Amino acid sequence: MEEFPESQEQLSGEMTASAIMPGHAGFLDPNGRMGMRRTILKAAAAALLLAPMIGAAQAQEVKEVQMLHWWTSGGEAAALNVLKEDLSKEGYAWKDVPVAGGGGDAAMTALKAMVSAGNYPTASQMLGYSVLDYAQEGVMGDLTEAAKKEGWDKAVPAALQKFAVYDGKWVAAPVNVHSVNWLWISKPVLDKIGGTEPKTMDELFALLDKAKTAGVIPLALGGQNWQEATMFDSVVLSTGGPEFYKKAMNDLDMESLKSDTMKKSFDNLAKLVTYVDPNFSGRDWNLATAMVIKGDALMQVMGDWAKGEFVAAKKTAGTDFVCPRFPGTDGSVIYNSDMFGMFNVPEDRKAAQVALATATLSKSFQSAFNVVKGSVPARTDVPDTDFDACGKKGIADLKSADSGGTLFGSLAQGYGAPPAIANAYKDVVSKFVHGQITSSEDAVTQLVQAIEDAQ
Amino acid sequence: MSSVATTRPVLTAERDEGIRPTVRSRLQEALPKIVLAPSFAAIVVFVYGFILWTAYLSFTTSKAFPSTNWDGLRSYEKLWRWTFESSPPSSWYTSITNMGIFGFLYVFFCLAIGLGLAILLDQKIRGEGVLRPIYLYPMALSFIVTGVAWKWFLDPGLGLEQTLHNLGWTSFHFDWIKNKDFVIYTVVIAGVWQASGFVMAMFLAGLRGIDGEIMKAAQIDGASPLQLYRRIIIPLLRPVFLSAFIVLAHMAIKSYDLVVALTSGGPGGSAWLPSNFMYEYTFKRNQMAVGSASAIIMLMGISAIIVPYLYSELREKSR
């Protein structure tokens, strides 16, 4: 009869423990572990039924962060490890929320399911408008206290705060700032064909022609809609200038979207696409980067995560590759940013969440992480000593763009408009690149229509 | 004492026999219902419940999350408008025309190749036991594996074209998988490759089920082999055609993974099927209402095929 010695009280205590922390039931045991173990099975069954009701009845702090992210590839995982170690020094365990499929889309679907079920992770890697979407649903936490203490208001660029702060409350911790208006040029190939870094669109086309005659693939492009749209972001900025970019791509001003400047931008894109190899459709971005790294192609237009690939291939900025801004966009930065969205977790998990957010925005992590990732720190007061030439340029550009008002959200990356519109935009650009839409006039009409449909 | 002692057991035994069989038989009667109840409840909630839920969502303003704000037929109006936007093609237009092309070619070629293989295998050839599983084997693969394998095989820079170029046939050109107008046909190729062996097995079973006497009688009457197949055997296979058609048609409509694995949507989304459209709009484009509406239209499409089939099946049974 030894199986049933526990009092009712003890049983309910256990139900709470195992409901809140599956696998950590021993943590709260006041009377020794033996009785505990035996009732877990019984309690687990009860807990399944009772879990929603007693979810809030926990007082003891849980020293664990549950993290949903899709940084699993070599460089990214290594970068994230810095954060894991920082947290474990403070005594917080790190638990990845498993995502089948691994990509960002799969992760966002998993997150949607978790949040709909009321099962919030401590934090999730998120992009731009999706943070605001979730904040609107009222499921995000509040980090304002930590933000005040750490001075985030001053250090984080205002453009980023638009996504990290909702209704006056900090709901996300930005991890980095990527910018997308870069050219990644192979230095050996550039020297071989005797070219120089282009400063204008015309110089760019001249350089691409030069590469073509030399028998090198001039432009490495992955024919997936987000890559094409990412390149088009830069084309629009270059063709229309900063004012126009902001009006068309961030404010979604219909007149600008219909304008001749927009048509000109599509024409420039069409011209750029003539320089890609015939096999580009469907190629992943990192394979396109690899073409530049190997010297098969002259250049790629891509965000600075491409630098992570160069670094991983042991290439040095300045000698093996150069990184000018996309011609005609010097002085402006089209950004996107990875953020850790912080969810409204139960009280007992709040301390771990604050620790995670604080560690994420600490100067040491911001520097260490972004050196590996290829991006630049999300706060402007981090010293650039550890960064390479491209990184230093990126940090300086971000600072000047932030103060000069030329820091714009990338529409392709979901920082210019909500996802429904960003995806409609990507569809139109992609259909234009692949020939379903045959003229720039059609493209402009389609773009306006698609954006209207998505609103 | 002894009489009491002897009668008692008899009495209890009688009473037991009077009660136990009824309890047991009641239990026996109820058992199938008890066993089926959980799965029945699960199906009611998770299949039919969610069909209703999806139908409801398609009339709301749902975007990233389900919402209950009534919006009438707006999502259907959008789909209806997109149905006729052929130049430049809307994503929905692409999806439904692709469905037509893919559905027709996939079913047709699977039936034709399956029947052809079955007839050839039915010629009492040696090694049938080895050949049959070889043709059937692709069916054991998941669509994802098929998709990835064919993606590499059809990729001009990696697969067939590159190999033939390396062998010296440099004028060979086959880039369908990168071509917006032809990419859907690569989905047909991979799909047919996967399913035709299975259809062959169905036809083979049908052929084996035909009475040998009929064929002998036809041969005695002087029917040529061609006539034999055209006039006698293939008409006798009608039920197999119907079953194969139903299996293939619903596989065609729910094809999603093959398109994703093989083409990741194709250049500019030119390989989308309605299922891809539904997923993209619901989960990636934050237009859940439009996605739900497209799901309902797909359901109606499937019903248009399945309901007549069920009707004819049930009618035949009751006869």
TrEMBL record, chain B:
Record's keyword terms, sorted: Cell membrane, Membrane, Transmembrane, Transmembrane helix, Transport
Membrane topology type: Multi-pass membrane protein
Main localization, broad class: membrane
Membership in a protein family: Belongs to the binding-protein-dependent transport system permease family.
Location within or outside the cell: Cell membrane
Domain ABC transmembrane type-1: 96-311
The protein, known as: Sugar ABC transporter permease
Entry annotated with the keyword Transmembrane: yes
Transmembrane helix is among the record's keywords: yes
Cited SUPFAM superfamilies: MetI-like
Coiled-coil parts of chain: none
Pfam families, A to Z: BPD_transp_1
TM region(s), chain numbering: 34-56, 99-122, 134-153, 182-207, 228-253, 288-311
PROSITE patterns membership: ABC_TM1
